Hints:
Blueprint: H1 13-23, H2 33-48, H3 56-73, H4 96-122, E1 140-141, E2 146-147, H5 150-167, H6 181-194, E3 198-200, H7 210-226, E4 229-233, E5 241-244, E6 252-253
Antiparallel strand pairs: 1-6, 2-4, 3-5, 4-5
Amino acid sequence: MSYKVRLEVFEGPLDLLLHLINRLEIDIYDIPMAELTEQYIEHLHAMRVLQLDELSEYLVLAATLIEIKSKMLLPIHEDEAFGEEDDFELEDDPRDELVARLIEYRKYKEAAESLKDSADDRADFFTKPPEDIAQYGEVVSVGQEESLNVYDLIGAFQKMMDRNRLRAPLTASITKTEQSVGEKMDDIMEKLVKSGGSCDFYALLESRETGELVITFMSLLELMLRGDIIVSQNDNFESLTVSYLKEGESVVRE
């Protein structure tokens, strides 16, 4: 029977060292070399089982850690020629170069993580080539009512679909839609005529079947773009009204 040991994946020796510093909650400017070196070598022993071909660069840093640790164990001898009040320069801390490398590496690592987060966020957006949408932005107005454009109609349809999702159970069924957009357009115009020329927007979308709703909505859009109907609203938050334009009736575009 064989056993597999799963370890964290590190991008290099500095990445492992930074991981240990964070895990041990070590002050990066005052590293206890004995403890850090011991932990680092323990990780190398575990990694040896899995990544023999990648250990060379880790071993180089291990040797560096041992060297720094040894230097810090050496006693500091002050030159007797200097008095207590004489000004002389002490030797550099043997950890300084390692600390500088770790700080520099941490900056690049944080920058890389920030770029990755930005890329992940950007993946949630979809783009399309630019096109002329001026024809869709024209507003049709009749009488004193506020006429709505295609985007208002789409927004109203989305709100209605959201309400349907809240009311209906989270199930879906697939049914074959026999009616075409052209046939649905004729049905809508017939309903408008029978209702005196106008009808509530949501009354035309009574079906709970997604396919039927989509066909009806596409038919309304087509009729609106052809100038056969208009969608208006008396005031904010009031229901939308769909009306057909009688033959010979002029349409004012703002």
